[in-house]
Amino acid sequence: MTEVPWAASMPQLLAPWLVRQRWYAAKGATVRGLERVGGFRLVHDVDGVGVEVHFIAVRAGDGDPVLYQVPLTYRSTRRPELEDALVGRFEHPVLGLRWIYDAPHDPVFVSALLDLLAGGRYTGGRAPGTGPGPGEEGAAIGVPQRPGPPPSGPAQVLRGEQSNTSIVVGRAGPDQVIVKLFRVLHPGTNPDVLVQTRLAAAGCDRVPHPVGWVEGTWLSPTGGLVRGHLAYACEFVPDAVDAWQVACAAVERGESFEEPAHELGMTTAEVHAALSAALPTRAVDAVVLQRLAEGLAGRVEWAVGLAPALEPFVAAARRAAATVRGLAGLPPLQHVHGDYHLGQVLRSPSRGWILLDFEGEPLRPLDERLEPDLPLRDVAGMLRSFDYAARHATIGLPTSHPAVAAADGWAQQARSAFLAGYLAGGGHAGAGPGGPTGAEAALLRVLEIDKAMYEVVYETLNRPDWIQIPLTALARLTAAAPAPADRTSAP
Prior knowledge:
Layout: E1 6-7, H1 10-18, E2 31-42, E3 49-60, E4 66-75, E5 86-92, E6 96-102, H2 107-117, E7 122-124, E8 140-144, E9 155-157, E10 164-169, E11 177-182, H3 191-201, E12 210-219, E13 225-235, E14 241-242, H4 243-253, H5 258-278, H6 286-306, H7 314-322, E15 345-348, E16 352-355, H8 366-369, H9 375-391, H10 402-424, E17 431-432, E18 435-436, H11 438-462, H12 468-479
Parallel strand pairs: 1-5
Antiparallel strand pairs: 2-3, 2-7, 3-4, 4-6, 5-6, 8-12, 9-10, 10-11, 11-13, 12-13, 14-15, 15-16, 17-18
Helix pairs in contact: 4-9, 5-10, 6-7, 6-11, 9-10, 9-11, 11-12
C-alpha cells in the first residue's frame, strides 16, 4: 500500500486532499487559508466508526472564501475496500489515531445519512475538541417527502460529477433513490431543491419524484448563523440512459438525431411552461434589459480574466451584449434549468425525457441562480451541447477532414429539430421556417456567445484539450453577431 498522509489537525489533513477533488472550485489557485465553520455528527449503530460532516471555508488565490461540505468517517483500522476513498490518518483530540475516509464511499455514512433524510438522528455542534459544543452551529434536519422507512441496499457513488457527489442507493426497482450531496454550500434555498419539488408538486412527470432533503446551519463570515441545503434525494430511474451517451452514440454510428432532438425540444417547452405556472415570473422591460446587458458584459470581463484565449473575441462579445438593451417583445423572465445540456437529461423508455440538476451554472452566484431568467438561456445551452456531442470525436482533426464536415451537418440538423420541437411545444423561440427570427434570434445568439465563453473558461480550468470546440463556435457566432441597436427601441 502507498504511504498515507498523517496530520495532527483537520486543516493540515484536508488542505492537500481538497485541492485534488473534482468538485474543488478554485483549481490552480494557492490555498491561503482553511477554517472549519460548522458541522455535525451523525448517529449510527456501528462501533468503532465515527461519522462527521464538516463545513470547511477555504480561501484560495485572491477570491472570497468558498464553503465546502466534507463528510468524513473515522475508523480505528484501515479498510482495504475503502482504499480509493482514504483521505489520510488523523490524530483525533478524543479518539486518538484514526483512518479518515471520504464518507460517501463508506456504507456506515450512507446508512446514517438515509436515516437523517427520513427524519433521523444527529448531534449538532463542532467536532470534539475543536470549539463550542452542540447547539451553536451545524444543526441538521432531514425533511422526508414520502412516507415509509428510508431506502436500503447496496450503495454506489457516481463517477464523473464536477460539483457534487451523488450516491445511488438500493436495488433496481421503484424504491431505488439517488442522494446528491452539495459539495459547495450557499446560504438560502438551493434551486435544485426548490425547482424540482415545485415541479413535482405541480404534477410534472419530467423530473424525478422527490424523496427528501437535508438542511444545515453554519457560521457566516460576517457573524451569525445561516441556513442552507446540504443534500437532496429523489427517485433513481433505473431504465434511463444519459442523453449525452445517446447523442454521442448516434454521432459515432452516423445516425440522425433529428427525431430525439425534436422530442427533447417539446419536453423542454413543457417544463418551461410548468415552471412558469409554478414559480414567479417577471415582465421584460427596459430595466430588465439594462440589467441583462450589464450582466452579460460583466461575464465577458470575468471570462477573459480566467481564459486569455478569449481575448480575440472580447470586442465582438461586448458588442453582442450591448444589443440586448434594444430588444423588444421578449417573453417574461421565469425560473429555468440554468445549466441545460445533454448531460442533465435522461432518456427513459417508460417515461421519455427526464430533466435533472436544476442548480444552474455552478460558477454563478446562488442569488443569481434563484432569480427568474430567460427561457432562451436553456435553449442556448442545449444547442451548445449538440455542438459538443457532434465535435467531441473530431478534436485534433484538421478542418478538411470528412468527420468535421459530418459533425457540422449533425449539429445543424439536431439544432433545427430541437428549435422546431420547442416551438411546437409552446416555447418562445421566435422560430420561422429557417429558424429563429426577430428579437428571439438576436437574444439566442448573444446567449450562445455567453455560454461558449463560459465553456472556454471551464475547458481552460479542467480540460484544455477540448478548448477548440467552444473557440470554434465563438468564431462562428461572433462573426455573425449584430451591431447594437438604438436603446430608444427598447420597451
